Amino acid sequence: MKTDRERIQELKSNGYKITFESVFNLAFENYKKIAIYAGLLFLVSITFLGIISLLIIAFTFGLDNLQELLKPENLDPKKFSDEFLMTYIASVTFFSCIASPFLAGIIKMARCADIDEEFHVSTAFEYYKFNYFKELFTATLSLALLNIGISSVLDATGIPILGFIGSIAITILSMLTVPLIIFSNFKAFEAINTSFNLVSKQPLVFLGLLIVVYLFLLTGFFMFFIGLFFTLPFLYSCYYAIYKSVIGFE
Fold first, then answer.
1. Which of 6, 96, 134, 230 is found 20 to 30 A from 223 (Cα to Cα)?
2. The overall pTM is greater than 0.85
3. Three-point CA angle 111, 14, 186, nearest 5°
4. Which residues are CB-neighbours of 162 under 8 A, at least 6 positions away?
5. CA nearest neighbour of 84 among 72, 69, 103, 62
6. How far, in Å, CA of 66 to CA of 53, rounded?
7. What distance lies between CA 91 and its chain's CA centroid?
8. Domain segments of the chain: what residues?
């Protein structure tokens, strides 16, 4: 029986065939199994982190300054200083890196649901073990820096839409990065390189999936905003479905 790496090497050399319908159907059926459980985890986790973040900001800058900052007229990005923007970008990037094992746990939850294996809250935090955490942290940080770098270069052309296109391209090409780390035990840079290689063979299918997913998330956002937490698991079910459809399991 071929190992993951042998199958992946063949896929990189010979390509593969998948269809939008097959991946979408697998993702949606899987999503229905984890939507409520994972949605509640997102709701509780993001609410808790939001409260902690506000407390940190309030103690750092003072409650009066926080109230002043949150006034609508002060939330215009054009009024933000370069120092504030750099701090904001660095904070968001760091938070994304710290949260990446949790999001990987949601993908593992999708795997458990697919094979009818019981999952728990602990499943979402399974990848905070150091050997996974360091690879997920490194991969997330590397992709964030690559995204910022490419977007900045393209924005400098004076055509803002190019920066947006560059950001979307990185998002699509990196879709398999986290599943490769948690399911195939790839290192961070190896996973990024392999993901770029594999996704680039069927880019239109992945683009179509990403568009549908974000439309689905947008629907959740307009459902009193709280619906977003219960539509978010669909994104990670989609990542799982892509990995299973392209690479599969032994």
1. 96
2. yes
3. 40
4. 154, 155
5. 69
6. 12
7. 16
8. 4-246
